[in-house]
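Q: How would the structure tokens look for this protein?
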Amino acid sequence: MIYNKETQMVFIENKYGALEPIMYDCFITNENKVSGKKILQNSIFYMFLKYVRHSSEETDKQTGEIIPGFIEIYQWKIAFEIIKNALELKSNDVIIAIARQAGKSHIVRMVAAFCLIFIPLYAKIKEKRYTVAWTSPSKRLALDHIEKLKPFIKKAVELFNMENYEAPIVTKEDDRTIKENSEILEFNRNIGGSIIEYSSLIILSLNKTVVNAG
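A: Here is the predicted structure in token form.
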């Protein structure tokens, strides 16, 4: 096990040489031991670990073996901070956490896609849809970001449906009545044959409000 003081996380090395977290919010006790919160298999953090493995997995060209994806140590810290705040529906804290990550758009896209698909599974959402707003200085840049975000969303939906095959996410590919355009991406869920509203991604620009966030 490896304790990283900067991220306050404990990691183990998998068989491919990548470091994966097993504890977070760690600290050194008076007995000089590491204490913290374990990543339990039924937790959203363990699901994010599975998402990281799935979203950037590669196939070994020589053996055909599927090698799970990974992210860097500092990216785990970024991801967990955003997910913790999103789970508690603290939108202002999520914005602050993301704003501090200038130049780290890859991990922000990963986490945004993950939250869009998985937060409603773990948090109590009062609204019909859990909504993620993606903002940008201009509509053109916002749409460019969304195109780069879509592959991560696709991987999140794939994982969700593998884990919840009896109540999968329904996308535009499955139901043409679902909205998917330059202003909004919607996702529904099929529970026992009933289609319910689930989550959405809205696109906002500073020079023009593309859609009403309320």
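The first helix runs from residue 44 to 55.

The chain is about 35% helix and 25% strand.

Upvote if useful.
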